[in-house]
Amino acid sequence: MLHIYARGVSEALHNGLQAIDSCGVTVETRNGDALEFPYPVCTEYTHPRERVLFYPERDANPFFHMLESLWMLDGRNDVQWISEYNGRINTYSDDGITFHGAYGFRWKKHWFDQLEIIIHRLKTYNNDRRCVLSMWDPVTDLVVTNDGKDYPCNTQIYFSARKVFHSELKSLDMTVVNRSNDLVWGAYGANAVHMSYLQEYVAQMCGFGVGKYYQFSNNLHVYKDVFEKVKPIITDADYEPYLTIGADGLSYSSPFLINDAKTFNRELHTWMLMDETEWIAEDQREKAEKYKNKYLIKTASPIRFAWRCWKQKLLDEALAVVDCIEDRAWRLACLEWLERRKK
C-alpha cells in the first residue's frame, strides 16, 4: 500500500499525480484507458481545512465544490437544487429527479440520521470506536445488473476523537474508505472538499478541533486523457496557495463553518431554501443578521449570488460580489475561475 502525505488538497493532488506517473499501470476501462495504482493508497491530510484547489490546469469549479458540500450536509438528494451549479450533474441521475447514491441523504435520511447518533456517541463515550458512518447499502447497491448511474464510491467513514498532545482538548480524526476513486475529479477534487466539510461539521458539533483526515482508496486511478491535461502540476513543486493568501507569509486559516451548534442544522436548511439575492437585498439584511452561523451569510451567500450573476452573463457584477466573500481562499478561487472565463 502507498501512503501519500499532504497538508491540504493542493499538495495531495501534486503528490498523487507524481506518484501515479511513477508507478501507475495502464488498464482498460469502460470509459477509456486509465493509469491505476496496483495497490491501495492512503492519503493523510494534516490540514484538511486547506480544501480549496487553485491549479489553473485543474480548473476546479469552486462554486460547485463549496455549495455541493452544504447540499450534502442538509441531507439532500434532489437534482434540481444542485444542478443549478453544475449543468452536467443531472446525467448521473437515473430518473432526473433524485440521485440514488447521494452521500448527504445517506448520512441523514436513507436509513436514519446517522450523524446525530455519531455526534452523540463522540460526546458521550470516551475513546468510542463504533462511530461508523455508512454510505453503501447492499440491498440497493450490490445488484446483479450494471445499469445504474450513481452508486457510492465512498462506502464508510470512521470518526475518532483523540486528545491533543499534552492537553485535555480533543480533536476529531476521520478515515474515509473508498472502493474506486478518480484521482483528479474525486479523491483530490470534490471528495477532499465534501469530506473535509463533513469532518469540520462533526468536530464542531461535538466541540472538538479538526484533526487528521485519512482517505483510503482501494482503487485510485486517473484517465489518461485527463492526466495529460493536468500533468504540468507535477513540476509545480513549490505551490503553496494557503501561504500566498496569508498575511505576512503565514498560513491562512479559513473562518469556521459553525458558530452555534444548536442552530446550525435549522439555519442551514433555511438558507438552502433562500433565494440567492436575499443576502444583499436591503429589506433582507436584518433577517440575514439574525443568522448565528455567519459562514452561511458571509461566505456561502455571496458565492451563490456571484454564480447567479455569472449565469446571467453579468461578469462585472459577479466579480464585485466575489469580493464580498469572507473566506479568502474561496474568494481567490472564485475570482481566478471567473477571470479564466474572460479569456
Describe this structure as you would to a colleague.
The protein is an alpha/beta fold and 343 residues long. The chain has 2 domains: 2-60 and 96-240, Thymidylate Synthase, Chain A; 261-341, no CATH class. The chain has 14 helices and 10 strands. It has helices at 9-23, 62-73, 79-83, 103-108, 114-124, 138-141, 183-206, 224-230, 241-244, 261-273, 285-289, 294-311, 315-322, 328-341, and strands at residues 2-6, 25-29, 32-36, 41-45, 132-134, 154-163, 170-178, 181-182, 209-217, 220-223. Strands 1-4-9-7-6-5 form a 6-stranded mixed sheet. The chain has a 4-stranded mixed sheet with strand order 2-3-10-8. Strand 2 (25-29) and strand 3 form a beta hairpin. Helix 2 packs across helix 7 (183-206), helix 5 crosses helix 7 and helix 12 (294-311) packs antiparallel against helix 13 (315-322). The chain is globular and about 55 Å long.
